[in-house]
Amino acid sequence: MHHRYDVLVVGAGGAGLMAALYAAKGNVSVAVVSKLYPTRSHTGAAQGGIGAALGNVAEDHWEWHMFDTIKGGDYLTDQDAAEIFAKDIIEAVYELEHMGLPFSRTPEGKIAQRKFGGHTREFGKAAVERSCYAKDRTGHMILQTLYQQNVKAGTTFFNEYQVLDLIIEDGVCRGIVAYDIATGELHTFHAKAVILASGGYGRAFKITSNALTLTGDLMSIYYRKGLPLEDMEFYQFHPTGIAKLGILITEGVRGEGGILRNESGERFMERYAPTIKDLAPRDMVSRAIISEIREGRGVGPDKDAIFLDVTHLPREAVEQKLAEITDLSRTYLGIDPVKQLVPIQPTAHYAMGGIPTTLDGECIATDDGQLITGLYAAGEVACVSLHGANRLGTNSLGDLIVFGRRAGVAAAKFARDAVLADMPVNPAAMASDMIASLKTGQGRENAARIRKELQETMMANVGIFRNGPDMAKQVEIIKELKDRYRNVSVSDTGTRYNSELMETVEVGFLLDCAEAMTASALNRTESRGAHDREDYTERDDANWLKHTMAYRDMRGNGNVNIGYKPVVLGKFEPKPRVY
């Protein structure tokens, strides 16, 4: 099957739907290809809110938000991206409100706002109410609202299609190849502009808040073509996942007054971040939790968790403002957070790195900024370097809206003037060969076993605390796993809804993302943001105030070539990161 559109969006989460909506407003034909039904996309799991300096509850200014974003990113954030973001997100939140998003309200009827980790007033003096929320279902409401708006705008959807290849020739993106999960047919999509919005790769880790579908598909496909992935060493662990399960408990719980306590009941964050305590940035809180556990102050049967305490909050606040978290705790733990402490532990949550882009979402192909014509990216798959070395809570949803919109506008503008580039002969050849080899191969390796070993070793060797020997060992483990993956085959050779086949393809994508991440982390000999090395404990601005660009070695030896891109500085000079 062959399809033609002016603008093609891969992924139907918040970034993809925002990009598609704004491309459609540009009077071009738009289609969205997604391996999920849009309202099941992982944006729906985002609970806490969207940070924007509306000032509805307390005085706030976009400059304060910009500063918090840069400081939270440990000064690896590109400051031009942070400025655009902090300004544009204010208008974008009001735009969502006008689209019909049912925000929670203040008594005066304004959009309600609450405190969130790392968000401060007056450049760090105290916590500020900046997160705009819809109870603890903000991401779900964004998906529903944007999907309805896309239906209204006439966007075409191809749901349950797994993308297998990007068609790039002579530096020009010409479309994609996708596998129809329902029928087993390959489809080619020919487009003037393609926007990648396919999310992250949290399933590379054993304990993660990420859905099963977040396997870094388009990051891997981009990387396989010899193109760079930026800042892959920076991966955020959210401090509060349900113990053992990794299911997210929103930072909004601490924004409403929740407290982290160790075995003795101590509010230990007072020792790690005296000013904003439990509302410190996520990387700092995650490290504090692991430190408490390491030093013998953990809770639970294995002493590998910490308590989250909301028992001092009014029942109404817990039941109403944190309804989903209350339900999750009761369902999965048999614990009523109104009366009992909830055991939590850090969970792999968010990739700060990804496909490097300009401020308009154009995909960058080299260290010196050359572009892939007609290719854009937004959301977690992309790295405009808004988040630097550590993303602040709420800035992911803001990123989706602001940079998804910019990518959609830019792609539509490009498509209106562009001529549809010719497709190569037999554009689906690579994807067809991949599927055929998995179905007909005689290899005895099992993809599920490889995935399990990858997840366990990544958690152990490239987790919250890192060191050179462990990461060097992980480099070799990944090489071995990739060698074994070449001997993988599937037992199910059917065509309709072949989940074994799709999961096997996804394991290959995860291995690529883990390879780029581990090599980048081993190469960066400092501690910054979410990248914390026990053998290089200090931030080193003299040598490492720069972005990593990781390229696959195309000679097939399993090595990664590292390049660099300068950080865009501005009004906020790097300073010690104290909260």
TrEMBL record:
It is found in: Membrane. Substrate binds at H238, T250, H349, R391. One of its GO terms (cellular component) is plasma membrane. The keyword rRNA processing does not apply. One of its GO terms (molecular function) is flavin adenine dinucleotide binding. Its cofactor is FAD. This is Succinate dehydrogenase flavoprotein subunit. It comes from Deinococcus maricopensis (strain DSM 21211 / LMG 22137 / NRRL B-23946 / LB-34). The lineage of its organism: Bacteria, Thermotogati, Deinococcota, Deinococci, Deinococcales.
